[in-house]
Amino acid sequence: MATEEQTQYNASNPTGYLTTSRSGQRLTITNRSVSKLGFWLHKVGTPPGNVTFAIYAVDDDEVLASKLLGTADSLTTSPVYYEVTFDSPVSINEAVYIAVVDTESSGTDYIRVSVQGAGDVKADEIFAAFYLGAWHTSSGADCAYIYTYTVLAPPTVTTQAVTDIAPTTATGNGNITDLGGGSVTQHGVCWNTGGTPTTANDKTEEGVAGATGAFTSSITDLIANTLYYVRAYATSEYGTSYGAEVSFTTLVKTPEKGTLWQEGTKVHIIDENEAEQSWEGTFIARHTIADRKAHLWMQDFLTSFMLYIDEENIDRRRLDGTPTGVTGQPEGTLFIEGAHLHGIDESGDERYL
User: Are 93 and 73 in contact (CB under 8 A)?
Assistant: First the structure.
C-alpha cells in the first residue's frame, strides 16, 4: 500500500467550535482505494461528543467513507497524529473533502485540526472547513493529513501465440492475470495489418470476466496470405489494458472445386477430384463484369472462343485453342467431355468449345 500526505503544520483550525463542524482538505483522488485516514489533532478544554474522520464528495456532499475515532475529550492537549481504518476500503475517482468531524463541542471546549498556514504546500489542494451549512476553502493553507491507498488499475492481460491459422480465420489466445481494481466488463483480442492494434480496430468481445485465467477468441473475416498483428485486451471501469503484440500470416487459400483462373496463356480449373487442370489458349481481352464467378458461355459467331469470369469476379476474358492435360468431369459450371470444355451459358444452356 502507498500513502498520500501533507505532514507540515504551523497552526490549527477550531472544529466543533461555534458553527464549524468539519475541517480538512479539498483534493482529488484518482482511481484509488482508500483504507486509512489520519490527521494531527488536539483538544481545548474538555470537549463533549465524538470525533469522526470522513470523506465527502465535492459534487453533492455524499459521505463516501466514515469512521469513528473516539471521544473528543480523549485527545491530547498538543498535536498528535490520529488515524482510523475504514471498515471497508472505499474506491474513489473524484474530487473530495477529507475531514475531521465534530458536531457537539462548544465555544470554549472544542478540538483543533493542524494546518500549514504559511503558503500553499500541495498544488491543486486546499484547506477547507464546513460552517453555516456549506464548505469554504482558505487560499494558501493546507491541512496536515495522511491517507493510505492502493491503486485501482485496469486489468492485466497477456497475449499468447495465435493458433488454428487458416486462410480467413484464426484463434486468438490471451490470459487475464490480474483483475485490477474493478470488474472486467469486456475482454477479447483485437487485430489489424499495421501493428499496435487497439479496440478501435477489429476485435472480438467475450464479455465479462469474473476471474483471472486463459481465454480463446475466434478471429474471422481475414484475408488469405496476409500478415496480421494481434493483442489481447481487457477492460474495466478503470481503463483498458493490452498484452504484448504477436503476429501471424494467414494461409494461402486453396482453390475449391469448380474454381477458374488464368496463369499466362492457360486457363486453370479445379476438377471434382480437387485436382488442378488447364486449358491452353491465347488471351484476347478482359473487361470488368461483376457477380459472375467461374461462369462460362459461348457465342454462335465466336465458336472458337471461350468467355469466362475469374474467381475474383472482376474479369471477362476470351481464349482460343485446344484443351491439354484435362481428364475427369469437374463440378460447378465447368466440365470436360472428351476433347471439349463444356459450360453453362447465361441462358442456362449447356455449350462447349
Answer: no
Burial, 338: exposed, middle or buried (Cβ in 10 Å; 0-12, 13-18, 19+)? exposed
Look at residues 257, 258, 259, 260 and name the one whose alpha carbon lies nearest to residue 317. 260
Q: 170 and 180 in contact (C-beta within 8 Å)?
A: no
Q: How many residues does the chain have?
A: 353
CA distance 3 to 19: 31
- 254 within domain boundaries: no
Single-letter residue type at 109: D
For residues 104 and 206, state if they share a domain: no
Instruction: Provide the β-strand partners of residue 306.
Output: 319
Q: Which domain holds residue 267?
A: 260-352
Per the structure, the count of domains in the chain is 3
- Which residues of the chain fall below pLDDT 50? 282-333, 335-336, 338-339, 344-347
Question: Does residue 316 contact residue 324 with C-beta atoms inside 8 Å?
Answer: no
Going 199 to 205 to 206 to 207, the CA torsion angle's sign is positive
Residue 255 domain-assigned?
A: no
Amino acid at 203: K
Give the domain-ending residue among 151, 184, 208.
Answer: 151
Question: What pLDDT does 177 receive?
Answer: 97
Q: Which three cell numbers stand for residue 331?
A: 463440378
Residue 328: predicted pLDDT: 33
What are the tens digits of pLDDT across the range 203-230? 999 999 999 999 999 999 999 999 999 9
**Torsions phi, psi of 25, nearest 5?**
-135, 135
Q: What is the pLDDT of residues 64-102, one digit of tens each?
A: 999 999 999 999 999 999 999 999 999 999 999 999 999
Distance CA 6, CA 128 (A): 14
pTM over 0.90: no
DSSP 145: E
For 134, other C-beta atoms within 10 Å of its C-beta total: 8
DSSP state of 154: P
Give the DSSP letter string of 80-133: EEEEEEEEEEEEEEEEEEEEEE--S--SSSEEEEEEE-SS--STT-EEEEEETT
